[in-house]
Amino acid sequence: MTDVFTGRLTPRADGLHPPPLAPAYRSTALRSPRHAPIRMPSTTTEETGPVFGHDMIAPLDHDLTANFGSGGAIGEQVFVMGHLRDEGGRPIAGALIEVWQANAGGRYRHARDGYLAPLDPGFGGCGRCLTDDAGAYSFRTIRPGAYPWPNGGNDWRPAHIHFSVFGHAFGQRLVTQMYFEGDPHIALCPIVQSIPDPAAIDRLIARLDMGATVPFDARAYRFDITLRGLSATPFGAGA
Amino acid sequence: MTRETASQTAGPYLHIGLLPAAAGLTAAGDEIVAAPVGTVAVGQPIAFRAAIVDGMGAPVTDALVELWQIDGAGHGLWRRSACDGDGHVRFETVRPAALPGQAPHLTLWIVARGIGLPLQTRAYFDDASENNDDPVLARVPAARRKTLMAHRNDDAWTMNIALQGADETVFFNI
């Protein structure tokens, strides 16, 4: 039995992620397990994961201003870029990052979104890329709009981009949302504020990066992502 | 050490980013992004279907599930599928082999509106003799192990996933 729990994945830190039940975010009420999850060190199952190849990525997949329509997308032009690393600071290369977002008016191109802001014929709202050898990624897109959502009666989501990230192990899998520096809705949002650790919230906020901004073209925002550590040797085998 | 980036819900519009073709994100007849597909699977073809319900027993129609398993030859196999209007998610896959020391199992990773940190669980096959010696099942209180068992039905192996309630499914913190 001791051989199965190899424990190469760093255990998840308590207090870092949103708890299952976050009362101010009402959708959690009926979707939150009441039992604590069963803790266990990782096994081979969680320490391995799918591999995605460049043949799955089309040339414009990383450019949300060009990958849907031919006329360009309406809104503030931005690059969103950063590095993907593990908790030990090691770059994670060849990892699939997928993003999706609302358009500049705060409307998603989705059958269930009925917000009054119009769809942009030049904007679909999804993109993907693989990280390079240094773990770097970059998307070109438009800054999404804030939008109201049915929760507390007058709740507005801060402008955000959804991220889905794979590491090299399925147990490193992450979904999160990236916010923009200076947005006053960050402090008001029940979804953001369900994260108990203010420092962890701060790391979800992308910073304007003038050094990477392309003059007379698009501003750059930097968002670095960290996945759980995957060690060659066990952290807590048999724990 | 920099800790893991905090999780946030995938929200109600996850299909746009994760299954864009199914979400109808086509332009001029071209799909801008096709969902990645797994490797060619070796083994006995099976269908697997899970019915996801919330704490009131209502179907969860907006969840997305990823499947991670080995095939019959031990190669990793990954699939992604969204719930339908009945809260059912279905995968065409193969019956997995057994990893050393473990019973054959499927890993299921669930995201949806109202789920802040993805829920991870396993599906075991209720006819597998290895289940009696599986060290992960051994960590689960005996009364709750049944929530991790898939049963063979006419058209698929099936399992209920209750996010909350009397028959709440066992989830893992790995």
TrEMBL record, chain A:
Its EC number is 1.13.11.3. PROSITE patterns: INTRADIOL_DIOXYGENAS (PS00083). Keywords: Dioxygenase, Oxidoreductase. Coiled coil: none annotated. Residues 80-108 form the Intradiol ring-cleavage dioxygenases domain. GO terms for biological process: 3,4-dihydroxybenzoate catabolic process. It is an enzyme of class 1 (oxidoreductase). GO terms for molecular function: ferric iron binding; protocatechuate 3,4-dioxygenase activity. SUPFAM superfamilies: Aromatic compound dioxygenase. Residues 1-20 are annotated as: Disordered. InterPro entries: Intradiol_dOase_C, Intradiol_dOase_core, Intradiol_RC_Dioxygenase, PCDO_beta_N, Protocat_dOase_b. It comes from the Bacteria. Belongs to the intradiol ring-cleavage dioxygenase family. PANTHER family: DIOXYGENASE, PUTATIVE (AFU_ORTHOLOGUE AFUA_2G02910)-RELATED, INTRADIOL RING-CLEAVAGE DIOXYGENASES DOMAIN-CONTAINING PROTEIN. This is Protocatechuate 3,4-dioxygenase beta chain. The lineage of its organism: Bacteria, Pseudomonadati, Pseudomonadota, Alphaproteobacteria, Rhodobacterales.
Automatic annotation (TrEMBL), chain B:
Its EC number is 1.13.11.3. It comes from Jannaschia donghaensis. This is Protocatechuate 3,4-dioxygenase alpha chain. Gene3D superfamilies: Aromatic compound dioxygenase. The lineage of its organism: Bacteria, Pseudomonadati, Pseudomonadota, Alphaproteobacteria, Rhodobacterales. The keyword Oxidoreductase applies. Keywords: Dioxygenase, Oxidoreductase. One of its GO terms (molecular function) is iron ion binding. InterPro entries: Intradiol_dOase_core, Intradiol_RC_Dioxygenase. PANTHER family: DIOXYGENASE, PUTATIVE (AFU_ORTHOLOGUE AFUA_2G02910)-RELATED, PROTOCATECHUATE 3,4-DIOXYGENASE ALPHA CHAIN. The gene is pcaG. It comes from the Bacteria.
